[in-house]
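Lecture notes, structural biology module. Today: joint structure prediction for complexes of two components.
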Amino acid sequence: MITGNGIRNSIYCAIAFAIVACASGPMPVDKLAVAKTSIERAEQAQAAQFAQVELTSARNKYAAAQTAADKNQGEVAARMADQADVDAQLAESTARAKQQEQLVDEMDSSLRDLRNETLRKDNAGSAVTAPPQP
Amino acid sequence: MKRNLIALAATAALLGPLAVMIGCETAPRNNATLEEARSAVQAAEADSNVSKYAPTELERARKLLINADASVKEHGANDKTANHYAYLATQMAHIAEQRAQEQVATARIMSGEAERQRILLSAREHEANNAVAQARTAQSQTEAARSESQNAQAEMAQAQAESRELANQLKDLQAAQTSRGIVLTLQDVLFDTGRSRLKPGAERPLDQIASFLNEHLERRVQIEGFTDSQGTNDYNLELSQSRADAVAMAIIQRGIDAQRIRATGYGEQYPKASNTNAGSRQMNRRVEIILSNGDQAIPGRIASGAP
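The predicted structure, tokenised, for the full assembly:
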């Protein structure tokens, strides 16, 4: 009986321990995956060139999240993964915005050239359409 | 002992929430990370492009800020979760701004592309118009050249027809084309001997000449009278002049303007034959009618050196 109670107690104890362990958070596997995907998207958007600070921050936090996960620090890992995710998203959106603005600049200057070109052609064209000298 | 423990627990149960509430009241609200998040979200909200182009991200940032505020209320200003949410809110507000900026740039690129198309189209229209104008000019030039050449051909055909007609009309008059013009000869047989009156046989050739002159108003006519060598010079000059005048008169009577006609008697000058026999003398007795080439003046006999 006593032995039976002891076993039962130790089982309760183990469950209690598990619950306590759980309190430090389950490993945020999905959050890590999300952060990883976001970093990859940022890299594809050429964030290394256009948003270096944000991308570096994302990579560092992702590494920290992995380290925390390895150490069973689920809560820290989840926070670091979340922050790595938003940093990566910011890196991606910053890189995209900068590139798009470069395109706007290029477009503006090419439109300027085109207008000048058309103006010149117009003048040349009107010279051509002038009636031939008698 | 046990009672004390229960009392302590009860006190804690009562005081715990109270302590948290007091903590909330007294905790410094100005958590730096949280305030940064708040101003980041407010800045994003102030940008009309953000609410237009990135409303989802802006809403996320707002909710994260609310979470951060709630965590501060619940756990105090230095709560890790509050700081975490505040950081996420800041970044999300920036993300919203960047995405809006990207969309604004994209919209500008699209309108720029439309502008480019418009410019190209109008340039192309211009070029097409120029090409059409050039083609029209070329075409009208070609047409002008063609009609010119058609005119030339028509003129040539007309001239050929005229000369054929002329040849037909004047066939009977021994017409000869010379450098002075068309020379027609009225033989002596058309005059009474020694007189200047025209015989009825002269009617038909004179009609032909008059109608020819009516058709060719630009042409002038020179009438020259000649005799053989018999008789005196004065007589012959007189006779040749009066015969030439008679022909001129007959032509004027047929409706030809006298201004176009000149009549001269040369007497026995410029003989056509030797005057040694009756046949050659008859050839010398004649009136020559010279029709000008076009509207040119008829050169004189000596000047032209013609016989």
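Point to remember: The radius of gyration of chain A is 31 Å.
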